[in-house]
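Marked as duplicate of an earlier ticket. Keeping the data here for the record.
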Amino acid sequence: MLPRLKPGVTPAPKSALSIYNPIYLGLDARGKRVRVTLMYRNILIGGEPGAGKSVAQGNIVAHAALCIDVDLILIDGKIVELLPYAPVAKEFVGNDMTKALRVLRELQKDLDERYLHLARTGRKKIVPGDGFRAKLLCIDELAYFTVTVGTKEQQEEFRTLVRDVVARGRAAGIITVASTQRPSADIVPTSLRDLFGYRLAFRCATDSSSDIILGTGWAKQGHTAVDIEPEALGVGLLRAEGGFPRRLKTAHLEDDHVNQLVRRAVHLRKAA
C-alpha cells in the first residue's frame, strides 16, 4: 500500500507503486522473495562484467519508474544501460562529464534546501507531504566518471559530490544507487563505500574486490563473491545494514518487458 497521505496531497493513480514500499530483487537460496526498502537508504552494486550488476540495477530503476512519488536522475557513462528509462527520468546524463557535474551540483543545492527545512521544522527526515519529492540517483559505472573521462579536477569533484549526496541524502529523501564493474579501492574508496547501507556483490575475481563491495573482512569470514560460479549469472551476495551477506538470484527483465514497463510508467506519471 502507498503511505498514508496528508491533507492536500493528490492520491496516486491505481496500480502505481511507491518508493516508500519494498523493492523486489529476486529469490534467496531457500526460494523466498528478497525485498529491500530503499527509501532513506542507499545501495552499492558491483561485480565482474556480465555477472548481473546491470540486471539488479535495472530491477531497482524499474520499480522506481512505476513510483509516481519519486523523480529519477540517471547518470550512465555507457549510455545503453539506463537509456530505456530516459522517458521517465527527470534528468538523464550520458557520457558527459560537464552535465554530470551540473546535475550533481543541483542535487547538492537541493540537499541544502531540504536540510534547512528539516532544521526549521525540527524534523529528522523528509516525509510525504513536506513538499519535497523523493529522488533516486542512479549512477551506472562509477569508474567512467572517476578515472576515465574528464580532468583530474573534474574526477575529484565528481567523487566529492557523490560522497556528499550519499552521506546527506538519506534523511533528505534522496536515494543513491551506484554500481561498478571495477570494484577497487580507487573506484570505491572506503570513505564512500561505508556510506552505503546496502551492498550487493556479484561474482568478483578476488576476495579484495568482493570486500570492496561487501565491506572489509567478510571474505575471511567465508562470505566472498569469488565463490559464485561463473555460470551462476544473476547470483550475488546482498548485505543489509548490520547483517550477514545473503545469497540471492536476481530477477531478470527482458527488453520487451522493460519497454512495456516504461510505457506504463509514462502513463502513470502523466495521470498523477
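See parent ticket for discussion. DSSP finds seven helices and ten strands in the chain.
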